[in-house]
Amino acid sequence: MEKSFVSQIADIDGDFAQWYTDVVVKTKLVDYGPVKGTMVIRPYGYAIWENIQSEFNKRFQENGYENAYFPLLIPMSFMTKEAEHVEGFAPEVAVVTHAGGEKLAEPLCIRPTSETIIGTMYGKWIESWRDLPLRMNQWANVMRWEKTTRPFLRTSEFLWQEGHSVFASAEEAEEETLRMLAVYEEFAKTCLAMPVLTGKKTEKEKFAGAVATYGMEAMMHDGKSLQSGTSHYLGQNFSKAFDIKFTDKDGAQKYGYTMSFGVSTRLIGAIIMTHGDNRGLVLPPVVAPVQVVIVPIASKKAGVLEACRELEEKLKKAGVRVKVDDSDNSPGWKFNEWEMKGVPIRIELGPRDIEAGKMTVSRRDGYEKTELPLGDAENAVASLLQEISENLYEKAKKRMEERIADADTLGELLKGVDGGNFVRAGWCGERACEDKVKEFAQATSRVAAKEHTACKCVACGKKAATTLYFARAY
RNA sequence: UGAGGUGUAGCGCAGUUUGGUAGCGCGCUUGGUUAGGGACCAAGAGGUCGUGGGUUCAAGUCCCGUCACCUCAACCA
To answer: What pLDDT shows up at residue A1?
Structure first.
């Protein structure tokens, strides 16, 4: 017999990378793409992304954003207008040199991010203070030629959302940067059941061309950190490079202040690694493609399939994403299959249940089965989905909070990250000290802590200017 | 680019030391019996052994070249 999924995967804490790859491949979320470092997102994986998109679109609209689309190809000359930006992205940009059978006069970059092309258009569109603020979002693919890749976490091509805004004042743009960061944090909590740390990044870790970068970091099962969203205050760096000028109320020509923010399909990787267990995926109900799977027992017996269909209809009407697995695999096989795929609720329906007017319900965040009356299935399922979401969040939050350690010295910091912790430590503000931490502990600064509690820099012992979270990162 | 490793059926692998008919498990197809935690029986399909050359009566196996991929280091949503 083939080894089961559970026995094939190593200890979840021991060989996490292998476990992750197994989950991604076996649950048919993706195939590896024909081009190295790319992935083919299969329907089950893409459905998660679509749910993420629709939840985000609601929130973006509430914040004044409209969706738009900008071109994939960016003239090289656009990229070079902002010095830091081009320097930061140059090593990972793919370039189109030929088209139509001829060498192009100017090479075209495949977008690694769209600040430059959107900035160019904004420069043409914006004339007056009345045009501001301008807020747009695009859902797109981008390409960054990464040396090492892993599905969802780092692929050469990935799908994301990038929001780009222009304001008349620095204050408004900075405020927006933090507001969208807060939208991310709320989304992570309510839709992904994922607790995150948010805060400002250091100079070393900030986006190329930004004045300030804020990040959202999530703790994975193995204690490593995954940057799962960023929001950048760009000041006037891009408005000056792309001539984003407007005539203000006082008649003066002024440069706008811009900001941008993005999350990617990496969020799906974050879900897998935050909630997954030895049985496979665990999907938060809000984004799960299938929220409830109904498994018929002895499905050839009279009335069983009919009862399943009836329940399916009832739940569908209540807005639940539900599926009846009427394939002719054995029930045990189906249980394992759907557990591996992370479906939050499984309902078993067999002759015994139907006779008793009940259904056997099993939730993915636990092992126990309970019997509930069939008559009130919609309400039971709705509240159970909510409960599962909250439970997943609480479990992940507890785990994260238990694994935040404090360090005063490099030795303590190393011990902390070795033990799978985020380490909170003081930092004097010098780049050299950050580099020293990385060299000593293979950990990087993630974000600044909201409260500055440390006194001394963990690397040099001088007075700490900030308190940072350090972690090993994906 | 520095170091190590792997290419054999859709997937995971054995076979290479010592050259001698291409194997196993899973999956797939067909039929039947089953069904409350990855069922069982039977029959079947599927491989120019990454690739080019060489040695040999004979190469998956030995020799030379070459390509691809993986892991770690370096770089990153």
So the answer is: 23
Predicted local distance difference test score (pLDDT) of residue A12: 60
Q: Which nucleotide is nearest to A362 (CA to C1')?
A: B37
Query: Taking Cα atoms as reference points, which of A88, A355, A111, A128 lies closest to residue A234?
Result: A88
Question: Which residues lie closer than 8 Å to A462 by C-beta, 6 or more apart?
Answer: A428, A456
Mode of pairing for the β-strands spanning A292-296 and A253-255: unpaired
- Distance, Å, A211 CA → B34 C1': 67
Q: ipTM surpassing 0.90, yes or no?
A: no
Buried b / exposed e over A114-145, threshold 16 CB at 10 Å, is bbbbbbbbbbeebeeeeebbbbbbbebebbbb
Q: Any idea of the CA torsion for A29, A67, A111, A236, to the nearest 10 degrees? A: -130
- Regions in chain A scoring below 70 on pLDDT: 1-15
Which secondary-structure segment (H or E) carries A400? Answer: helix A377-402
CB atoms within 10 A of CB A433: 21
pLDDT single digits (tens) A290-319: 999 999 999 888 899 999 999 999 999 999
pTM (2 decimals)? 0.94
- Three-class HEC string of A422-449: EEEEEECCCHHHHHHHHHHHCCEEEEEC
A279 CA: nearest nucleotide by C1': B38
Spatial distance between the Cα atoms of A175 and A233, rounded to a whole number of angstroms: 9
User: What are the DSSP calls for A22-87, one per residue?
Assistant: HHHHHTTSEEE-SSTT-EEEPHHHHHHHHHHHHHHHHHHHHTT-EE----SEEEHHHHTTSHHHHH
A301: which nucleotide lies closest, measuring CA to C1'?
A: B35
Measure A148 CA to B1 C1' (Å). 14
| pLDDT given at position A221 | 81
CB A299 within 8 A of CB A330: no
Q: How far is CA A306 from the centre of its chain?
A: 39
Q: What is the 3-state secondary structure (H, E, C) of A265-317?
A: CHHHHHHHHHHCECCECCCCCCCCCCCEEEEECCCCCCCHHHHHHHHHHHHHH
Which residue's alpha carbon is at the shortest distance from the C1' of B72? Answer: A148
pLDDT of residue A232: 97
Q: Which nucleotides of B are covered by protein (CB under 7 A)?
A: 1, 25-27, 34-40, 68-77
